[in-house]
User: Which sequence fits this backbone?
């Protein structure tokens, strides 16, 4: 197997440092064949540059795909906390408001919404339906246009009710 060249830019992670992009690209590359190696790449990216938010998303998605929901949840909260700090907001998502998110820098604000979606999904997968519903309800209040796809989680919860 040949590792992806940086100029291939297989996944657009945005404007992030080249060494971090290289680690994320390597993790994406290895994920299908060697999930542990992929997770190690993503964790290395976080350890090297904890303010680069896409690294957290890669890692919590990798843990989730491996059905390691406890680890996925911990990483989602870790990334959420880092993004909240960058946005000048509380890490307690229940305190977030639409005006505060609108006033925050775009990248961390968007990441906060995606992280809250992840929390709702992971809580559902962990069997914590009420926690999932609480996160989802708050996400829907923050993002009534469904820009981050909360409706997907809502549909999963509806299936749980059926």
Assistant:
């Amino acid at each position: 197997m040949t590792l992806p060249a940086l100029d291939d830019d297989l996944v657009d992670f945005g404007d992030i440092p080249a060494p971090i992009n290289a680690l994320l690209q390597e993790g994406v590359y290895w994920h299908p064949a060697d999930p542990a190696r992929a997770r190690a790449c993503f964790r290395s990216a976080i350890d090297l540059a904890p303010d680069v938010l896409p690294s957290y998303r890669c890692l919590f998605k990798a843990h989730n795909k491996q059905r390691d929901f406890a680890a996925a949840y911990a990483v989602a909260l870790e990334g959420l906390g880092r993004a909240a700090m960058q946005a000048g907001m509380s890490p307690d998502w229940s305190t977030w408001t639409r005006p505060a998110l609108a006033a925050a820098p775009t990248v961390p604000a968007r990441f906060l919404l995606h992280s809250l979606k992840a929390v709702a999904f992971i809580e559902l997968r962990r069997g914590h339906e009420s926690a999932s519903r609480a996160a989802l309800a708050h996400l829907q209040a923050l993002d009534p246009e469904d820009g981050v796809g909360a409706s997907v989680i809502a549909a999963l919860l509806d299936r749980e009710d059926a």
In short: The mean pLDDT is 91. DSSP finds eight helices and no strands in the chain. The helical segments are 18-30, 35-48, 54-65, 69-87, 98-103, 106-125, 129-142, 150-161. The CA atoms of residues 120 and 135 lie 5 Å apart.
